[in-house]
Sequence to fold (283 residues):
Amino acid sequence: MPCGRNKTYTLSRIVDEQAEILTRAQAATLLDNRIAENVAAQKVDLIQWIFDGISVPPGSRVLELCSGTGAQTTRFIERVGQEGRVVALDVSQQALDTLMGKVPGEYRPRVTVVQSGMDELRSTLTAWGLEPPYFDLAFCAYGLYYSADVGNTLDEMKRWLRPGGRVAVVGPFGQNNAQLYGLLERGGVSIPAYVRYTTTDFMSAEVVPWAAQSFENVSISTVVNRISWSKPANVIEYWRNTSYFDAEKLPTMERLVDEHFANASEFVNEKWIMMLEASHART
Fold:
């Protein structure tokens, strides 16, 4: 979400739209269902792409914000090794419970799960007995835009880094979801401005300028991941588990999806993904 630099999307609009959207976006079951629909049909293995591009040496201390149900967390736990530590923070206790259910018993000493919002990062970590600088990597994928003050959250991530530490943020950008949004709008589904902003403009408008100002070195990697759904039910199921599902428009959307598959063997939706990694913090 905006932290003061973007003038086209106001805080009042965020407050008006955010509550119901966040409730659905952060629900563990819906999140897992969305991930499952994407993973089953994606061209690029997103998790592998992330970890091909980010270094996590054994012994690393990793802070993961918006860990969700653990899509990245389990990889971090494997990579940090016995001497490393992962602190996974998420606002949803249900998501954290799901995450821990994926962690083998012998790896559990390496991970600490913390139920908290990002905006309470400093007080939460301090309450757990930690003091900055502590982490080698502060990471967030698909969730930083849920912060009420993104600039402050990013500053806190930086504040907790040990010398040589890095901040890495993964999120959507550009023409992300353009095909799906277009289809939904044809069916009369309204895509909230908040959803539009966070899934297309947020990374470029918020994260990139902050990183350039706060770090000496900034690297950006991007990928366009084609999600090829082979059945009408796959398209509908993904939409049903999003924050912008509209049950009243379901019959219309089912008809439009059926019409599409009458002339095509698949529905392709493109996920535009950016990973930014920043190092050598400016003082």
Notes: Residues 193-214 form the longest helix (22 residues). The beta strands are 61-65, 85-90, 111-115, 135-141, 161-172, 215-229, 267-281. The chain has eleven helices and seven strands.
